[in-house]
Amino acid sequence: MNTTSHRLAAALLASASLVTLAGCASSRSGNVYSRDQARQEMTVRLGVVESVREVQMEGTHSGAGTLAGGAIGGVAGSNIGGGNGQIVGAIVGAVAGAVAGNAIENRATGKTGLEITVRLDHGGMVAIVQEADEYFAAGQRVRVLSGRGQSRVTH
């Protein structure tokens, strides 16, 4: 395989990995329901927002970033040296690419979230983390919807 072919293969792998990563992202928004959550009963509790804190939600670790990074790093590393140097370069490149690809996937799919603490009308407090796609402020009346082990805060 010549240098141009290596570069083309690396570019194709990078493009494929970006498409794969985009498809892996799932929503943790208070406004998005999965198919399995449709037509399921949820408990509704009313309360007042006590505090809101911005947090970072970890990205996915599907393995797609690791795989794509390893493949790209292996191809790039194999262009280093000649003979056994190419083999060593491919191995080192694959390992470094896999580590970098995993980190890139995590950063690309991570999201800003909100930790919303709510004082419930009937006593008690709950804190729920969800995507920061809706505005909440202390003192605001909200609903806490819970069911099947998941909860969300809505207006």
UniProtKB/TrEMBL annotation:
Residues 1-22 form the signal peptide. Residues 64-105 form the Glycine zipper 2TM domain. Its main location: membrane. It is a lipid-anchor. Pfam families: Rick_17kDa_Anti. One of its GO terms (cellular component) is cell outer membrane. It is found in: Cell outer membrane. Keywords: Lipoprotein, Membrane, Palmitate, Signal. This is Glycine zipper 2TM domain-containing protein. It comes from Rhodocyclus tenuis (Rhodospirillum tenue).
